[in-house]
Amino acid sequence: MSERLGRLATDLGERTTYDAVAQCSRCGYCEQACPTYVATGEESKSPRGRNQIVRLMIEGKLDDPKAAMESLSTCLTCGACTTACYAKVPVVDIVLEGRRMLRETHWLVKTVTRLMIDSPRAFARLLKLGFFLKKIGASKLGRPFLRMAGLPILAEMDAHTDEAPLRNLDDLMADREEPQNPSYRYFAPCGPRYLFPRVGEASMKALDSLIGPGTYLNNPCCGLLAHNYGDLADARELAKRNILLAENNGNEQIMADCSSCASFLKTYPQLFLQPEEASWRRRAEAFSQRVRDVIEVYGENAAKLPPDVRSGVETTYHDSCRAINGQNIKEGPRKAARRAAGASFCEMAGSDQCCGGAGAFGFTHGGLSDELLRKKTANVASVQAGLVLTSATSCLIQLARGLRKYYPEAKVLHLSEFVAGALEKKHGA
Ligand code: SF4
Ligand code: SF4
User: What pLDDT score was predicted for residue 268?
Assistant: First the structure.
């Protein structure tokens, strides 16, 4: 059993996990918003069912831990249930607490996190080696061995991604001229840093142009991987390092360009709710108030974008769960996309429904994940979009895979890439 938070920061105030779960009246109002319930029709794969399982666990009445693990591990942690729930029951945090009660952190998560904390350079070099092997086709040959070695998740990760950049964002930013008085501090989430450096580059270009030049923070991982897979101690350690780094770097806004990461950075105070952690809680609150998801900034500055410069290709928008449910960001990114795409912007049905990526979910629950992905790509096809915009790493991986497989007429970009492209056209004109 892993360490638990014990106390949660809910929309109705601070609660023990039990009080938070007891807020669920079992009304079922959230059921139709839950992708896993809609896909399976099973009560145990609904928010209400998951709440009840965790409640039984806390009350010591759980009689089938295996079924409980199946129920909790199939939750996408998308948060659509809390958005739909009138009592704002924090189902995601409840599910994560339940998972911590049932299992230890997987050794692979522990190893990766420790490597990121203790030897970030060695971690970056290992990734580059992996990407090199992918480029020469060797990683594909290695997949059966990874499966035999009990690491199917690594084989799936390799199979799901096409990207293999040999220069990460740190390399690309090494020669960047840093301004004396920066307008913002860029926080590099692991996705844009290692897998999609083009996204990080585009974000900084777009932000420099819209709000003035900023600096590259060179931060450690936000800790989301450790947090979501059961290791609170490492998540706290990473949070403290990031808080310290921010305290030593002015008081400007901190911009992150993966919505999952930005959303987690905003919830750092929840890691420090015990009375003995009061001073870290205050520092975490000051930190989280500085954090912005870059897509918020694009919305606020949409009027500065040139109109209609990216028209011609039907363009639609997919809400990342941790943007729309985790941070309540809906209109801003659309405002920016609509401005630059003009009449080419179109809404698709189910834009706010999870694509099935959800962190490592796409690698660990292939069947269910693929079902959600097929639905998403069918919605893209129904508006004949050629371009899908989004804002989180796992959505970029999942949508790229889904579009390749089911609707190759379209491709996916991070909103930063779209906005940076629009600004380039403006300056080039
Ligand atoms: S989570 Fe909310 S909406 Fe869902 S059953 Fe419980 S109280 Fe009702
Ligand atoms: S977080 Fe998403 S998948 Fe999990 S119970 Fe809520 S709606 Fe369902």
Answer: 97
Q: What is the dihedral of CA 348, 351, 354, 360, to 10 degrees?
A: 90
Which DSSP string corresponds to 112-137? Answer: HHHHHHH-HHHHHHHHHHHHHHHHTT
Is residue 105's pLDDT more than 80? Answer: no
**Number of residues written out for the chain:** 429
Q: Is 27 in the pocket of ligand 1 (CB under 6 A)?
A: yes
Strand order in the sheet with 387-390: 315-317, 387-390, 411-414
State the angle between helix axes of 138-148 and 152-160 in degrees (0 to 180), rounded to the nearest 10: 150
Q: Is the CB of 358 under 6 A from ligand 2?
A: no
The minimum-distance atom of ligand 2 relative to the CA of 321 is: 2
Please write down the long-range contacts of 274-282, taking CB distance under 8 Å and 24 or more positions apart. 274/6, 274/7, 280/240, 280/243
How far apart (Å, rounded) are the C-alpha atoms in residues 318 and 298? Answer: 16
48 CB near ligand 1 (under 6 Å): yes
Give the pLDDT of residue 152: 62
Structure token digits, residue 178: 């840093």
pLDDT in tens, 226-276: 898 878 998 999 999 999 999 999 999 999 999 999 999 999 999 999 888
Domains and CATH numbers, the chain: 7-102 (1.10.1060.10), 305-428 (3.40.50)
What's at 205, amino acid-wise?
K
How much distance in Å is there from the Cα of 332 to the middle of ligand 1? 28
pTM of the model: 0.92
> Which residues partner with 49 through β-bridges?
none
User: CA 94 to CA 72: how far, in whole Å?
Assistant: 10
